[in-house]
């Protein structure tokens, strides 16, 4: 990614089917390869086509057009797993290529989720994150998300996910 003043502004786009392999590879690399998720979860992380039917997949591309970050925005249905009502949205599997982390891509993706949730009439955005994902937690807190410890959950034994929310 270029940092020159003449570089094109980063934008968030809807993922295309030809992005799915890269999104799956990147998500698996960051979560499983980075020690943030178990290898068993890797199958779900790579199943981008499956989640595309339950979530809006958003991407940010690098200067060469390659996916540099992605997130799955859940505006309806149960893929969010932590929404409690129809007026909540959620996002999952936020990922940024380690080579370009720290350049605002994660924040851009989160803000796009917030904008789309507002446009859909949602009153709150919720998310869950593993305790080990401290950089993500700092981002969420900086953007105004607060902890909802009463909604923390365990998808499998030994894994505790922390819940954060932002009222829109």
Automatic annotation (TrEMBL):
Annotated N-acetyltransferase domain ranges read 10-168
Per its UniProt entry, which superkingdom is the organism in? Answer: Bacteria
Annotated PROSITE patterns: GNAT
Q: What is this protein called?
A: Ribosomal protein S18 acetylase RimI
SUPFAM superfamilies in the cross-refs = Acyl-CoA N-acyltransferases (Nat)
Q: State whether keyword Repeat applies.
A: no
**Which InterPro entries does this entry report, sorted A to Z?**
Acyl_CoA_acyltransferase, Bact_Acetyltransf, GNAT_dom
Report the GO terms under cellular component: ribosome
The transmembrane residues are: none
Keyword Transferase in annotation: yes
Q: Name one GO molecular function term.
A: acyltransferase activity, transferring groups other than amino-acyl groups
Q: What's in the keyword line of the UniProt record?
A: Acyltransferase, Ribonucleoprotein, Ribosomal protein, Transferase
């Amino acid at each position: 990614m270029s940092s020159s003043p003449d570089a094109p502004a980063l934008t968030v786009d809807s993922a295309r089917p030809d992005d799915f392999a890269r999104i799956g590879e990147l998500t698996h690399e960051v979560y499983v390869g980075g020690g943030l998720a178990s290898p068993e979860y890797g199958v779900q992380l790579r199943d981008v086509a499956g989640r595309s039917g339950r979530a809006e997949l958003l991407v940010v591309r690098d200067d060469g057009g390659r996916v540099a970050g992605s997130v799955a925005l859940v505006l309806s249905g149960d893929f969010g797993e932590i929404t409690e009502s129809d007026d909540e949205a959620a996002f999952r599997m936020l990922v940024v290529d380690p080579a370009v982390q720290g350049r605002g891509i994660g924040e851009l993706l989160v803000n796009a989720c917030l904008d789309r949730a507002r446009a859909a009439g949602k009153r709150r955005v919720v998310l869950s994150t593993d305790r080990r994902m401290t950089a993500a937690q700092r981002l969420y807190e900086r953007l105004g998300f607060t902890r909802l410890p009463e909604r923390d959950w365990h998808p499998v034994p030994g894994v505790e996910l922390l819940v954060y929310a932002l009222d829109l």
